[in-house]
Amino acid sequence: MGRKKAKDEARKLPSGTLLVMGVLVACFGLLAALFLYLHKSASLAAAKKTKPSLLDERDEVVYSKYAGSKSCRDCHTNAYALWENSHHRLAERHVNPEIDRRFFEPAQVIRHNSQTSEVRIVEGRFEVLAPDLDGQTKPFKVERVIGENPLRQYMTHTDRGRWQVTEIASDPVRGDWFNVFGDEDRKPGEWGHWTGRGMNWNSMCAACHNTRLRKNYRQSTDGYETRMAEMGVGCEACHGPMADHVAWQKKHGQSQLAKYQAPYQRRQTLDPTLDKLTKPQWIDTCGMCHSRRGELTGDFSPGDDFADHHSLVIVDETDIYYPDGQVREEDYEYGSFVGSRMYAAGVQCSDCHEPHSAKTRLTGNQLCMRCHGAPIPPAPKIDASTHSFHKPNTPGDLCVDCHMPVTTYMQRHPRRDHGFTIPDPLLTKQFGIPNACNRCHNAPTNTVDWALQWVEKWYGTKMERPYRQRAQVIARARQGDNAALPGLLKIAREEKIGYWRAVATGLLRRWAHEPQVAEVLLKQARDTDALVRSMAVRGLDLLQEASGNAVKQTLSALLSDTTRLVRVEAAWALRANLDTNTLAGRDLLRFMQHNSDQPAGLLQIGIFLNDRGKSSEALACFQKAVEWDGGSAPLRHALAVSLSQNGRSQEAVQQLEMACKIAPRDAEYRFKLGLAYNETGRLPEATASLEEAVKLDPQYAQAWYNLGLAYAAAGKLEAALNALGRAETLSPQSAHIPYATATILARLGRISEARTAAQRALSINPGFAEAMQLLLTLQ
Hints:
Elements: H1 59-63, H2 77-84, E1 92-94, H3 97-104, E2 108-112, E3 115-122, E4 125-131, E5 137-141, E6 144-146, E7 152-157, E8 163-170, E9 177-179, H4 201-204, H5 206-209, E10 210-211, E11 217-218, E12 223-224, E13 230-231, H6 235-239, H7 243-254, H8 257-260, H9 264-270, H10 279-287, E14 293-295, E15 310-312, H11 334-338, H12 341-344, H13 349-352, H14 366-372, H15 384-387, H16 399-403, E16 406-409, E17 413-416, H17 425-431, H18 436-440, H19 448-459, H20 466-478, H21 485-494, H22 498-507, H23 515-524, H24 530-541, H25 549-558, H26 564-573, H27 583-594, H28 599-611, H29 615-628, H30 633-645, H31 649-662, H32 667-679, H33 683-696, H34 701-713, H35 717-730, H36 736-747, H37 751-764, H38 769-777
Antiparallel strand pairs: 1-6, 2-3, 3-4, 4-5, 6-7, 7-8, 8-9, 10-13, 11-12, 14-15, 16-17
């Protein structure tokens, strides 16, 4: 429950040429950060074998197929014993006085930042006294516990089927209480306060802490009818529904043992109710919970493709991950793992973890040396005694210390990065990417240069490996450095690991209008990896108006892709005219409905309605989203654009002013505020806001362009030329910038320079009528 709120999406430059409010851009992307994965080519649709969809089955039908974990105990004695006291089994449970009483009795007062909570037992009732949604302290009955070690959070039922999770948690080892958000002082009324939607169990926690959960959000009541097969992560959370298996075993197992004359393991293979999962299916089953992802359906079942139900968050323009793939925010394990060479080599979770206890199979370096000691190809041979350059049995000698660094989340939960990354102080020096050397050797004298000297001494030219080069390209691409484009194209075309092809493909959106990029995006739309195809759709979405039939035909073809994620992305790109009765149309509607209980889901629905010409209905969605999360700058921004479209410019200015107050370092909101000020006739404020935008982001071409227009409107023609010059350098593919330059040069009487600028505009867009007309007047 420690997941942070997703950060603002990366900026997409508007394409308008006048100082007016732009339309809502198409590339808000899919929610949560919608990013992701696997398997077969779109051209192999007929060959792909999938289980029949259960999405439309009624709850009663679905849950009748589950037998419960206790039904497994008698036959699977050893596995059950390992699971019974595991963190999976205890992922969620009812309050147990024998276990929980010590944290509530005697009563305790917990001060966390500006707030105070109290825990106590009153007449056998476990209670938390805490600020409610209105800020008033009230008693809440604690009925469930979520998590086990190193922390436990507590759940209370409110109304309309809602369960909320406390931000104060107990530590079973230290025996104390603490705030999982540390110094964050989340206030009543905020999305992330324990009473808010960001801490709502039904939406944010339930699916991963229980077995086969259906959220069942009801828009009509803004409430839930959430159901589950079993509380906690039971056997069937990983093995799938087993009622048929239990029935078959009861009939053919013990009673007909003589008939089969076979050991138990053999009888299992004869069981027609069992479907053996493949390696990718097992990994996807783990990934369903151990990933930062958006939900497409909310109804994953073991054996399903991950990308038929989820959109994985991967390395992108945001700071959710570091450019080399290291986790930064709370990203869990799956995303890093599928980007690793270990995953590419065929390693799966259960190779290292005993699946029923979830503990590692061996301790220390023994686990890694199982493959790297012999070695077992393709694992490279590692001599553990010399490779680490650290004394045996000291920090730094363990493989995981360097290649699986620890980040602590929720204040008390240390987790290892499963990307198996390589410590590289040079990347720290160049881009601020952390390295395991300085994470451990953190004394003031142990600088990055100090770590770099040792690494270069020990490993020399081995550090100039593809890992470093890829991270450098991606880091520069995230900064908007045009010099990164050739390397990014190479990664997209040649990288063997699909995850990184997808990362590069996603980052290419910034340069989507470059001819060579458009060509690569069209190629990536046919990649064998669904994650890559989904990222290609996002880039192609930007090219629909400029690139003619090839792009639209490709997007239309992807509406029939074998993987739901790709279909949903394609449907989103084509949403303005999408037939919602098609398979992809239904997928998109289901996705939006499933996420409509969160502000980001309403944002998506609002964009969908707006782009289908239903601006008033869209405005209502944006208003409700802001009501649910008034502290979100992206939601304020979306509402402002919608208000502007509906002729309510003054209200749009107010919303953008709030967005800038919430996110004062975001250049996009300053830029849009400048447009809004201009729309309401406040040119001085518009100019000041645009100046602030380019100060915050000197690479923001569109802001420089509009600032040039603002200067020109104020009669500051030389300043206008300087601003437009910066804009043209940053965005040389735009014909509107040199055209604007030409008009100002003409006003100054610099006719020869004006002609040259107009000709530049026409060389970019030969059909630019205004530039052609201007050039004729300059003869």
